[in-house]
């Protein structure tokens, strides 16, 4: 047995997580990417914003797409936990064609950005990083569009920088309920780390099929499975898994639901009603699992809580409506942003 497998099995045993040998073998199949997603192509040139945070030099990858016929507005796209800036490819094209300058960053800890050995992750910190990036390229006002965990970040950004946030669009954001308060058990960072070390393409695909695409599957979804699986197969596997564990802990412990009433920015909610996302609900008792991640209920509750919002629901779509039905989603996005007032 190699040292790596011994190390992995010891970690899993310490966290009381059982993983069959077949799952470990599956993790070695398919493409392999570096710890900053080296080898995986993005839909536009990737630039790097170098800065210092918490005493450490790091860099934040981003795409900056300037339109042929500018409308004078900027859209910032914030990815989710199991996503990267590259997964916004279709949305980038639609917004750019509509005249927006589009900025799509990879947050610290994700994809092509730095994965620090030690970092105090918070949505406030990620919002500060994003704001610093935008300032560095001369953007003072933006429409901020966030999906999933990126929706949590978008809301935090608007709470911290209301004068710089023209509009918000939130695509199946999480953080709209407090899972711990509802009975989902808190996992330690070590437990999250063991889970992330044990991930593989089959597990990722199964989860995405059930949650993102409502049990359906198409070939164009597979690159996003391999994007995640490939970075977890690569030489930076432990580094990637450790940052992912810290990020999961951040998501679980920092719900935004209690601050929705303070969010004054004009907001568009775009919700796939078949979504059932709730972090760590698989560790919860059955009676808890059934009451969390109910997006039709969360959508209506959030609409009532936000002072200045409108809601568009997709009754048959899941957690990633922008990928499951891009035509319907992008029409709703453009129409919705046009109908919203702008915070100028």
UniProtKB/TrEMBL annotation:
Secretion signal span: 1-25
Uppermost EC category: hydrolase
Gene Ontology cellular-component annotations: membrane
Keyword Hydrolase found: yes
Ranges for domain AB hydrolase-1: 76-326
Organism listed in the record: Cupriavidus basilensis
Keywords per UniProt: Hydrolase, Signal
Alphabetical list of Gene3D superfamilies matching this protein: alpha/beta hydrolase
Protein name: 2-hydroxy-6-oxo-6-phenylhexa-2,4-dienoate hydrolase
Keyword Signal applies: yes
